[in-house]
Design a protein that fits this description.
Blueprint (H helix, E strand, L loop, with lengths): L2 H4 L1 H12 L1 E6 L20 E2 L3 E2 L1 H11 L3 E6 L4 H10 L10 E6 L13 H6 L2 H6 L4 E6 L2 E3 L3 H10 L4 E9 L7 E5 L5 E6 L13 E12 H12 L8 H9 L5 E5 L15 E3 L3 H10 L27 E3 L1 E2 L2 E2 L1 E3 L2 E2 L4 E3 L2 E3 L2 E2 L4 E2 L4 E3 L2 E2 L4 E2 L4 E3 L1 E3 L4 E2 L4 E2 L3 H7 L1 E2 L5 E3 L1 H8 L4
Parallel strand pairs: 1-4, 1-6, 4-5, 8-12, 14-19, 17-20, 18-21, 19-22, 20-23, 21-24, 22-25, 23-26, 24-27, 25-28, 26-29, 27-31
Antiparallel strand pairs: 2-3, 6-11, 7-13, 8-11, 9-10, 15-16, 30-31
Helix pairs in contact: 2-7
Length: 431
């Protein structure tokens, strides 16, 4: 950030503008690449890091940044997401003009369509958004894990007199085709924007990297309203911010790139500007297991930038039995409240609330979601165990790739997803 943005006068202005900013979190996607994990839950509602939900990161970033007017747009199988927000995020005070407003798809516009794209989701709630009279609208995805001070992004937006600001991050070119990819000039103005290109353009001087959109946008509100009105009636549009609205502005408006490195919230000694799209089984497993390291890139212990969530009322984790062949222990692991490790061994694993691991079990390099019960003598390696699954005694997963692939979904990187449906098929002799 430049020195003028650090000036106290600008800080006061930014704080005032933050109070007049409305954040909209797009949380309606299914997240089909997470396979059975999203059969009954929208991706933003999936548990992450032992006690949180994915959407808690975007919501916490808003609260910690000073944005306390928030709308959450939902659509796909939203019950657990709505329930989580109602239970865990009801602490804002309406009399202070603070709120988290739930905006499920309601077929509110002429034609009675469900949300047809990210821009259409906002358009269908345009009357509600206008009623809040925002000066700026911050558009966020509800399915990424990161810590970001949106106030710094707004400060740059104001200083550069931008019409639209787009947060960006450098990613390897081999994965950039899954993002919007941009080119910028020396003033950080975006001169080209391609949504999910087959051959992403490299960054100058960095042939292995591409500059990718994070799906985080700040719009001047009046411009956004006009754009959405025009886009809604354009038959050739897919009604998406990345595919339609942002590219259409490049030649006619000031569209500015905001580098994530300028607003990423990092702990002392951190080397990485942490941002994760946990939209695949491999990425979800890796992001959870990474947190078991001695010093992970994502700091969950930072009191200055806490992650808020719904707190289940459960007892502390418990470890029982201490004989040589039956010792309840966990090493290099994170365990949430309500877990009982009963004469079993857990290594390099993430266990969510109310997981029971029974005697003589071995759980290694695994992610076990809330409410699971792992039967005696089971051995699980590099697994994700879905919510509420009862693992039968003696089940062995993660030691024979061919057997695992016949019985469960197994990724090319060797992560096995254990679900109740697959276990039932196995019990019935169908696997």
């Amino acid at each position: 950030m430049t020195n003028d943005l650090a000036d106290r006068g600008v800080d006061l202005e930014v704080n005032q503008r933050l109070r007049k900013t409305l954040a909209l979190i797009l949380a309606g996607g299914r997240g089909s690449r997470l396979m059975d994990l999203t059969d009954w839950h929208a991706k933003p509602a999936i548990p992450f890091a032992g006690k949180f939900r994915i959407i808690d990161f975007a919501l916490s970033n808003c609260i910690n940044s000073g944005i306390r007017r928030i709308g959450v747009l939902t659509q796909y199988k939203a019950h657990s997401l709505l329930q989580h927000i109602q239970r865990g995020w009801g602490f804002l005070r309406g009399e202070f003009n603070e709120f988290i407003e739930l905006l499920p798809a309601q077929q509110r516009t002429e034609g009675g369509n469900w949300y047809r794209g990210t821009a259409d989701a906002v358009y269908q709630n345009l009357d509600i958004i206008r009623a809040h009279r925002p000066e700026h609208v911050l558009i966020l995805a509800g399915d990424h894990v990161y810590k970001m001070n949106y106030g710094r992004m707004l400060a740059q937006h104001l200083a550069s007199k931008a019409d639209v600001s787009v947060a960006c991050i450098a990613v390897p070119r081999e994965i950039a085709s899954g993002f919007g990819v941009m080119a910028i000039n020396a003033d950080n103005h975006i001169v080209r924007f391609d949504e999910k290109p087959a051959d992403p353009a490299p960054m100058p001087g960095h042939p292995d990297l591409a500059l990718a959109s994070m799906g985080i946008y700040i719009f001047n509100a009046s411009l956004l309203f006009d754009l959405l009105e025009k886009d809604s009636s354009f038959a050739g549009s897919s009604h998406d911010f990345g595919k339609d609205l942002i590219p259409s502005l490049i030649a006619t408006h000031r569209v500015v790139a905001h580098h994530f490195s300028d607003s990423c919230v990092m702990h002392d000694g951190a080397q990485e500007h942490y941002w994760r799209d946990v939209g695949t089984i491999d990425a979800y497993w890796e992001a959870n297991v990474d947190l078991t390291k001695v010093t992970p890139s994502l700091n969950l212990y930072d009191d200055s930038w806490p992650i808020w969530t719904d707190q289940p009322q459960v007892p502390p984790a418990k470890f029982v039995f201490d004989s040589d062949d039956r010792r309840g222990m966990a090493v290099d692991s994170l365990l949430a409240g309500g877990c009982i490790i009963s004469g079993a061994v857990v290594r390099r694993s993430m266990l969510f609330s109310n997981v029971r691991v029974n005697s003589y079990c071995l759980v290694e390099d695994s992610v076990v979601l809330p409410g699971c019960d792992i039967g005696r003598h089971a051995r699980l390696t590099k697994c994700i165990v879905d919510q509420g699954v009862v693992v039968p005694p003696g089940l062995v997963v993660g030691e024979d790739p061919e057997i695992d692939a016949r019985r469960f979904y197994r990724t090319e990187k060797g992560i096995t997803l254990i679900t109740a449906a697959k276990l039932k098929a196995l019990e019935n002799g169908e696997a």
